[in-house]
Write a structure and sequence with these properties.
The protein is rod-shaped and about 110 Å long. The protein contains nine helices and seven strands, in the order ααααααβαββαββαββ. By secondary structure, the chain is an alpha+beta fold. It has a five-stranded mixed sheet with strand order 2-4-5-7-6, covered by helices on one side. A two-stranded antiparallel ribbon has the order 1-3.
């Protein structure tokens, strides 16, 4: 299906370019009959209309043979020097054709030496135009190929980053469930059901595309609820989500907000007597503002954890890739409070 779509897109481009060429040449070939009259033999200056049209076909031969065959095949190859005699021969053949056509059908035109520049000059002009066209077309094609490679590379990197988030997330959640299992908590079953919903979202709803903001918010709420099942009243979680009716029409990179909340539960619970986490999400006027605060124990910041930081560094990289120039991320540590504020322009 993807291959068919690529072929259709390529054929559409060729058709568009071909239509432009056909229109330009049609105007040039018919120009004498558009700007002159039969009484004047459809002349453009000293050139009869019929000869002007016949010359147009000769110019087409010069343009396409040089732009699509001689120049691309010889100019940048090992035998580039062959291009010079080929170019001279191409122009010489066009001059000869024009001369014999004039001599056979329009001998009177040859008697006017001043008209020669209008007869033979266009062949040289079209020849150089064909070179310019080829160089510009090659530059555009190269830029498109480079852009395509950059897009494919970004897509590959984004898929890697998304795949990196999933195991990191599952590692943290499963650690929470192990804690519930050790306590033989009645909340374990409901936690497993909630985890299955979260995994369904990760596996089926977030593959290779953005999701609606409302879906991401639902996912965020489920994760917070899962954590509250684990900690119960041990952690004070204050959640405020304020959205507009138009939220459903906005999309967002999936699993973009969850690392901030993960980080708050991971570092804002242990070693604290009264842990508290504040989460505020606002969607207004096409802009999302996400604010997360958690207290932390400054005395345990030096404890090394190989998995710490994966989520935050990952989300920062994805923000740079997908929302460059459209987001601000502030991370602050003040008086035992870790505070992040993400402002994002939605699409």
């Amino acid at each position: 299906m993807l291959l068919l779509a690529m072929r259709i897109q390529r054929n559409k481009y060729v058709l568009t370019e071909g239509s432009i060429h056909a229109l330009i040449w049609a105007l040039l070939l018919l120009l004498p009959y558009l700007v002159s009259t039969a009484a004047n033999d459809y002349k453009i200056g000293p050139i009869p209309g019929l000869f002007f049209t016949i010359s147009g076909f000769i110019h087409m031969g010069i343009f396409y043979s040089n732009a699509f065959f001689f120049y691309p095949r010889l100019r940048n190859r090992k035998y580039w020097w062959l291009y010079i005699p080929v170019a001279i021969l191409l122009l010489f053949v066009s001059f000869q054709l024009k001369y014999y056509i004039l001599a056979f059908w329009f001998p009177d035109v040859l008697k006017d030496m001043a008209s020669y520049k209008f007869i033979f000059g266009p062949s040289v002009g079209i020849f150089f135009i064909s070179i310019i066209y080829r160089r510009v077309a090659d530059k555009i094609r190269l830029e498109k190929e480079q852009e395509k490679r950059r897009t494919e590379q970004l897509s590959t990197e984004l898929k890697f980053l998304r795949s990196q988030i999933s195991p990191h997330f599952l590692f943290n959640v499963l650690t929470n469930l192990v804690s519930l299992a050790r306590k033989k908590s009645d909340r374990l079953e409901s936690s497993l059901i909630m985890l299955s919903d979260l995994m369904r979202y990760m596996l089926y709803d977030t593959q290779g595309k953005k999701v609606s903001v409302s879906k991401e918010i639902a996912y965020l709420n489920s994760y917070i609820a899962l954590q509250q099942l684990r900690f119960g009243n041990e952690v004070a979680v204050n959640t405020v989500i304020d959205t507009e009716e138009e939220t459903e029409s906005y999309t967002i990179e999936p699993m973009l907000l969850i690392p901030f909340v993960e980080n708050a539960f991971k570092h804002g619970v242990n070693y604290l007597s009264d842990p508290q986490i504040d989460i505020h999400l606002l969607v207004k006027g096409g802009q999302l503002t996400f604010d997360v605060k958690n207290r932390f124990d400054e005395g345990n910041l030096t404890v090394h954890d190989e998995n710490s930081g994966i989520g935050l560094s990952n989300v920062r990289t994805r923000l740079d890739m997908l929302y460059k120039g459209k987001y601000t991320l502030l991370i602050r540590k003040e008086k035992g409070v870790f505070h992040i504020t993400l402002t994002l322009v939605l699409t």
